[in-house]
Amino acid sequence: MNRRATIKDIAEQAGVSAKTVSRVMNDEPYVRDDIRERVKRVAAALDYHPNRNAQGLISSRTFLIGLTYERPSPSYVVDLQRGALERLAGERYRLVVLPFADAREDPAGLVALLRSAMVDGALLAPPSCDIPEVLDALDNSGIRYARITPGTMLERGSCALLDERAAGRAIAEHLVQLGHRRFGVILGHPGHAATSARLAGYRDAFAAAGIAPDDIRIERGDFTFHSGEAAAHRLLARTDRPTAILAQNDDMGAAALSVARALGLAVPDAVSIAGFDDADIARLCWPQLTTVEQPVAAIAADATDRLLKQLEGGELAAAITHPHRVIVRGSTGPAA
Amino acid sequence: MNRRATIKDIAEQAGVSAKTVSRVMNDEPYVRDDIRERVKRVAAALDYHPNRNAQGLISSRTFLIGLTYERPSPSYVVDLQRGALERLAGERYRLVVLPFADAREDPAGLVALLRSAMVDGALLAPPSCDIPEVLDALDNSGIRYARITPGTMLERGSCALLDERAAGRAIAEHLVQLGHRRFGVILGHPGHAATSARLAGYRDAFAAAGIAPDDIRIERGDFTFHSGEAAAHRLLARTDRPTAILAQNDDMGAAALSVARALGLAVPDAVSIAGFDDADIARLCWPQLTTVEQPVAAIAADATDRLLKQLEGGELAAAITHPHRVIVRGSTGPAA
DNA sequence: AGCAATGGTGACAACGCTGTCAGATTTGGC
DNA sequence: GCCAAATCTGACAGCGTTGTCACCATTGCT
After folding, report:
1. Mutual orientation of helices A296-311 and A74-88 as an angle, nearest 10°?
2. Looking at the predicted structure, is the pLDDT value of residue A2 above 80?
3. CB pairs under 8 A between A and B
4. Which residue of B has its CA nearest to A226?
5. Which uninterrupted H or E stretch holds B98?
6. Residues A122-143: tens digit of each pLDDT
7. Integer Cα distance of A96 and B317 in angstroms
8. Which residues of B fall within a CB distance of 8 Å from A330?
9. Mutation test of the interface with chain B: which of A77, A115, A118, choosing the one with the most B Cβ atoms within 10 A?
């Protein structure tokens, strides 16, 4: 077990000063080509890795990016991480995961977590990306951040955007086109901006089709399978039940599927069910769930890209809206 | 946007030396109680967070723990992370996620990743925890590690253990007790130690029940839903099909469920299906999947604990084996 | 009173690296 | 061949923290 090689070790072996080695390592000019070569060879031979603590101490950076989120579904978390890591590959930055229980109740706690983790920048997933106190505190403490699919204050910080409302409208239009006129909606967690944005999208589609508010029954959920079961039960156990259900994520859509089966309602013949997100579960349940795909990994990569640009002192580029895509599967069909 | 407070700032405001502040921050003795109090108050007022770069530079540490794994299911990844983070809460260490594509093909690449991330220690999930080259290289570079449910070389490093074989035997015995005598097995990825250990456990149960090898049909899979579908199809499309299928994880078990449904075979009346892991999907499919729960988060926390003990210079405690638990749900029933 | 042991405090250096600056060497223009 | 400009090189300081060590103050003991 050898001590890690330092610049000093390389300098001695190569017969140059530490500063020259440093110049070579950072691809700075003003080093003769032959010396540059020699230093590189020695560094490779010693398997040199720069000490980021020392680099960070000087530049007051840590080369750490914190990813914060609040117990969403596992596949969403993994997609976020995958997207961020894709962009970070080959960079000096590393990804630290910092899930936080409830940022809305304790915004200061989230920021304290980020500060004590000493991250240079933070990737904020919903719902923390929509909490003004969090953004204020981050601005104050000089921690850069990028917001992943925020629903409000779109002008603050750099954002990777999704048009949740348009996506909601798209999936609702799919059902309207199949002839459905009586709808059930299962909402997501009330604290998420996506919940109201997706609902607004549904309503856009309903209004355009001339569907009366009386024909729309809305139930609350919180994005969990369990909450979806309860809400689906309330929707489907009535005699004037809807012919189509819009669930605001796939876990709740799958739950609605399971409730329909338990009640003896064939899907999609008796009732159509659509989800949201195109999570793994949408392909694993039966019938497979019609849903809207949001390119989560690409968004996370975009947010990471924006964050890196900020950390390198670049300008904030204009936000772009990532496209959604309706994926029609077996759980939706023509109205009876 | 304020500069972060340093020890020097606190020292000036509290009218003491930097060293005394340091002593207070690290709960060292030899500071008068009133001074200790005063320093703590000033530190809190300035919202002081120690600079881990500086701390790390001195102690040649980074207070970073790397978690490595190789695209397992999202819920497994999240459980690992949750367990590790639970143990890390309140510690100075932070968790860096380092998924790596194929450690078996490129062990040196994985170690290079860990070295360049400058982690103090690594948590190795399967299959990298079973690759001797990886362990050798880590030993050589002085990166401590803890192995999460290794299947081989149990004497190397510190391990958080699972008795995969006993768990395999337990779930197989459940089916034997239901009267099944003709079995299909869907194996996991051939590179994982768990694959052969679980199979050995199945065989223990079969041998104890006097079931002939001819009545056991084994198909290969790789832990993905897709591979499970193909394997299940090969098992169920035959006339002498098994009355019970043992899938080595829940994704493949759910796939078998879906194939059975497509072939018009009622579960569990015509065929019983058991999974492994108690992943989310086991509760989300229909009928819900009988499976074996492995306490993944607790194991990850245990591994993290062992790693921290090593990093703090403690002794290696004896490994303990974490208990499995058979969870009987609707997908298994008496043999026809 | 005298002296050791203990408690309490701070000056200083060092961790590995890079910014600053001064100085040495080479190049190019006349 | 001479001077300015460009190219190259290294000594030194300092980032924020802690280990080492020296020192002063107090206590408890002959």
Report:
1. 40
2. no
3. 120
4. B284
5. strand B94-99
6. 999 988 999 999 999 999 888 9
7. 28
8. none
9. A118
- Which range (A42-56, A126-140, B234-248, B305-319) has the least confidence? B305-319
In the prediction, which pLDDT does B2 show?
A: 65
| Three-class SS state of B147 | strand
**Closest C-alpha to A287, from A273, A308, A301:** A273
Residue A252 has pLDDT above 90, yes or no: yes
Contact criterion met (CB below 8 Å) for A146 and A303:
yes
Report the nearest residue to nucleotide D14, CA vs C1'.
A58
Q: Strand pairing partners for A158?
A: A146
Q: What angle do CA B290, A290, A264 make, to 5 degrees?
A: 55
User: Is strand D in 7 Å reach of the CB of A19?
Assistant: yes
Q: Indicate which of B4, B91, B92, B97 best probes the interface with A, i.e. most A CBs within 10 Å of its own CB.
A: B97
Q: Shortest CB distance from B2 goes to which of A64, A75, A140?
A: A140
Instruction: Quote the tokens at residue A141.
Output: 């403490």
Partner A contacted by B62 (CB < 8 A): yes
Question: Could you tell me the domains of chain B?
Answer: 7-50 (1.10.260.40), 59-159+296-323 (3.40.50.2300), 164-294 (3.40.50.2300)
Per the model's pLDDT, the better-predicted residue between B4 and A81 turns out to be A81
